[in-house]
Amino acid sequence: MSGADDAGQVDETADSADATGTPEEYGTLYVVGIGPGLPDHMTKRAKDVIETADCVIVSNLYQEFLREDGTLPPEEAVDEDGFVTRNEGHEQQIVRSSMGRQIELAKEAFERVRAGEDVAHVSGGDPSVYGKSDLLFLMADEEEATDIPIEIVPGVTAALGGSAMVGAPLCNDFCTVSLSDKWRGWDEIEEKLRAAAISDFVIVLYNCWRNYEKAVEIVREERTDDAYVAIVNDAGREDAGRNGEGHFVTTLGDAVNHDEKVSGMGTSLIIGNHETDTWSNDDRTYLVTPRGGRDVDDF
Hints:
Layout: H1 6-14, E1 29-33, H2 44-52, E2 55-58, H3 60-66, E3 83-85, E4 91-96, H4 102-114, E5 119-123, H5 133-142, E6 150-153, H6 158-166, E7 167-168, E8 174-178, H7 186-198, E9 202-206, H8 212-220, E10 228-233, E11 246-251, E12 267-271, E13 277-280, E14 285-288
Parallel strand pairs: 1-5, 1-6, 2-4, 2-5, 7-14, 8-9
Antiparallel strand pairs: 3-4, 9-12, 10-11, 10-12, 13-14
């Protein structure tokens, strides 16, 4: 969006939410997962919802991704208040989201829907995998907004995007664990990591920029050091991510020696189980976790 500050946006949009209709006249709040963010990995449903919504709530980074193929119009087409005219004269407003404004923007989304607008609240990955879905449902309870129609539009999460980059590591039972201790204590995270390691799940770690070394050491207590690990960055984002797409295959015993590969919020770790093995051709090494056994005859 060009030149609009946060306060200006909220003031500018307040009038649109003043008139509240009956539930039959409400719009819909769509929580839209755009996967890694680039067009090739976004569902047609996600693209359609974003293109036709009256309001799109989206971060600056995801705005860049969505302009790649015209899902959002170019920045120069958007006025200083975030408004743009789409196909057939449809007016749309693009509102910048950020971590510090999530509660404020949830309330604004409810008001807009009650005023008859369709709102697309954009999330990276899948909105229900460490995304924004839970916040919006909880806020709807908090704000007595359970009358608001909410639809979740799924997207490709980092576990799936990272798995595709490194082969087939998730073909047997797996789980995901977030290392973020913002909403829960490390004791709870450690308990889940240990249980997952003992149960021989393939483990996908999210938010690896927080305590990934500690997480790896906990898993090592229950799993052999030669278990394979993939360190994945910005899966599916090519050069458009925060640090650039890439992956690196190592072992559990050696994973903490590659701190330079863990580059930030876009990093995930895939920790193989006792059946996960490598598969190589002339170009690269993949990870494969067999579904039922190591032999084709076992299928």
